[in-house]
Structure formats: structure tokens, C-alpha cells
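Fold it.
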Amino acid sequence: MPKVDLSFVTGALRFLLRPFGYLAFVLALASLSAAAKLLGETHELGYFSDRLAAMLWRYPEVTRKGVQTAWVVWAVAFLIALPPLDPLATPWDEVVLGAAAMAVLWRRTVVGRRVER
């Protein structure tokens, strides 16, 4: 039986699993931001999660790869949801994916500009 280089196997596994780590990071950061909005500044956990989320969102070099990976996952899910490959017989999966993208883009363009003023 031939010997397999363990560092090669570990490197290959990390390469394959890294996008899932980026996606988990972005989902956790989005959950932290949602918790801050839902609990509000008067609640101590809302106050803490708001400060922590704001601190992390402030560094684009930390969040860039995760956000890019999330958009790639969204694009793949949208392509799968289109009619030739669609595993569901309803158009609601396209509607939900489109609404999610529109909500993110709305927040980045319209709400982001309001903050700059």
C-alpha cells in the first residue's frame, strides 16, 4: 500500500472546506447583527452584540472573503433554482433567493448612503 503524504491530504481538505468556514463566519456575523437589531441597545446582550458586530464589520479585510463566498453560494443556489435544474416544482425558491439579494443590495446602497450623509 503506497504511503500518502498527510500534509497533502490535510491541505486538500482545508482547501475544500475553507469556503464553508467563510460562509459560517458570514452567517454568524449576520446573526450577531440581527440579534443586535432585535434586542436593541437597551438590552445588555443587544448592546454587546451591536458593538461586536460593528467592530468586525469595520474591517473589510476580515469580512471580504466570507462575503464573496456567500455571494458565490447564493449564485449557485439561484442557478440550481432556475427551471431546467430546479428540484422544486414551485417558483418560490427563485422568489426567496431574489428577495434575499434585493434586501442585501437595498441595505448596501440606500441605507448605506443615508448613513454617509
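The two ends are 67 Å apart (CA to CA).
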